[in-house]
Fold this sequence. Notes:
By secondary structure, the first copy, chain A, is an alpha+beta fold. Helix content of chain A is about 30%, strand content about 30%.
Amino acid sequence: MRQSALFSATTRDVSSEETAVNAILLTKGGYVRKVSAGVYAYLPLGLRVIRKISDIVRRELDALPNTSEIQMTNLQPRELWQETGRWDDAGMREIMYRVGDEQAYGLGATHEEPVTDLFRQFFHSYRELPIATYQIATKFRGELRAKSGLMRGREFLMKDLYSFHLTPEDLDAYYEQVAAAYLRIYQAMGLKAIRTQASGGVFTTIPSDEFQVVTPVGEDTIYVNEAGDHALNEEIATQEEAAARGYTRTEKATEVGNIFHLETKYTAAMKAEIATADGARVTPVMGCYGLGISRVMGVLVELMGSLEQGAIRWPKSVAPFAVHLIDLTKDKVGEAVYQDLRAAGVDVLYDDRDLTAGAKFGDADLVGASVRVVVSPRSLEAGGAEVVPDWANHPERKEVITLGELATRLA
Amino acid sequence: MRQSALFSATTRDVSSEETAVNAILLTKGGYVRKVSAGVYAYLPLGLRVIRKISDIVRRELDALPNTSEIQMTNLQPRELWQETGRWDDAGMREIMYRVGDEQAYGLGATHEEPVTDLFRQFFHSYRELPIATYQIATKFRGELRAKSGLMRGREFLMKDLYSFHLTPEDLDAYYEQVAAAYLRIYQAMGLKAIRTQASGGVFTTIPSDEFQVVTPVGEDTIYVNEAGDHALNEEIATQEEAAARGYTRTEKATEVGNIFHLETKYTAAMKAEIATADGARVTPVMGCYGLGISRVMGVLVELMGSLEQGAIRWPKSVAPFAVHLIDLTKDKVGEAVYQDLRAAGVDVLYDDRDLTAGAKFGDADLVGASVRVVVSPRSLEAGGAEVVPDWANHPERKEVITLGELATRLA
């Protein structure tokens, strides 16, 4: 697309309220704009990154057995939440917005009740289980102290997956498949996530698993093993206990996903029963699996962005565009190249604006496309366009490619 | 995908509260499930239709000049709405939910204020105009009488586009491009929409344009011209006046889109000024363009669904799946065919369930895939699979294709 058509602007002046690196860089680059504390609008570049992350998540989850995507609602009837007692729960009262006449609805802070309600309406026989479903949807949470930019907000995008099983063993098998899918998801986005044992919460003795990424700005402390592929959250062990179990390295880390055994907490409270082969009725066990899509975008910027350089070095898989075509000629020689690239199906952003080279390169560093193509009087003299094939990792490697060859080479 | 993996179920018993054909058929088919009056969860089939409609809309809007997609927020600060006076407007008070401590937010019922706020932050020079942006996003409206299934809800999916221009002439030119894009969008979905002049509302003397589809269940009355491509809404003319202007046919119709001149109502109230070439400052004029995504899904079912036949004859472009593979063999001969079709990139739903042929065909009529493929003992005896290439329009046309050829023929 044309850069002149983006409904956004890069900016040097970011409100001093923004202290998180991700919020500052994403605002500077015109990816997002803060609407209110913890509430961000996604501008064209930001929406493209969100969509690429979502597509990676979908690809892995759609490959899980008996798993399909749905879209639940944000208006959730009070009655559903009263069935599990969470409507009057102090913790939920704090984070769940209530709307409508006489507070008829809670605004989707999480979806265990609605998904269990759908489950009990659709599934009645052991033949139909296991079954699982996920959504990628907006969540609303009345966080008192919304902070950390996209990493903890009042309105944010999350993937939540729920599974239903006849036996704990069957749940365990699915749970492990999800854990493996999560690791592939993070790997595809260039994140090294460590599976980390953590507390299961108040209603189960089974620990949960977090996926943690090591970073100095992390809000969690974890103890990592020698191989660096498993860890314990400090909430479930002291440093000494962890070390005794082989978790010897202490790190700051940030959570990018969390998977839980819910046992029968919701299915029992909401009377979701399944008939077994021998005619008995059992209450299925349930797992839930969260992954914050907008949070992951924030984490990626924390790790791959640089305030000093004013740059975001996105991994190729989630960069807003694959190719950034920067036109520095007076007579827009790049226009024909842009048309060629589009015709060849290349995911290209064309900087067609009347700005100085300096301004264009400054913006390009914030766009962080994998391949940078510059068409300038100098590059034309050298025989074509100057191409940086892997800008994020090797900004110094350049080659000149003739304009005629560009589309074939980059397609 | 496998039909056994869908997180939904077809049902014969639909609550008698549902009176609209679209709600009854979509519930029967397992596309949606009512959560509360005017609030529907989208199940896998429904979400697929929504996504196909959205993609058609995106394809046309992305081709408009200076137009890009964003995602605004549903939490909208009260202060923005106070700037235009709509926070205390009686009509808006009725439909806009308020949330948060001391009603800090309105819940996105429409987005003129937030989009104008973004515009005034990003754009300051005549060089940057015209500029336009759209989103496909959830809207919340406290409709007192939510009815008509997906056609009028409290939580629904809408595409809203906004454009900003230096002059009314420039807005008019863009407006006509949008109108043409809308007609292409409806045509791509098999809808014959008629451009219909309607009232512009309270703050402009310029009429708006609705896109109306003729149907006996329509809530509007329109006067259509001889050619059948233009109409007047009865709200702006009597039958006699209309007839005198050549609009001689009276029809019931339902609105599937609406485009407006907003003039400077929002840009003036919110002080969005643009510097002109000669250093003056002007208030840009604005257009807005709505298209209800979930509403269109409802309209399609009203027109193409049949309660008597228990069938939805989707147009090919929006059917939840292109191909429905129905396996009636005991030993699941269809499994290998399914793998072949998937490998060939075919958008296929595989009915792998242990149900009677009658139950499977009944469900298939509600899925309404364009191509139906049946693998049964009888079809195998005849040499392969029985294929209905255009089930919606010619359910009687069938041919036998060998299993080995299927993937190549259907890819």
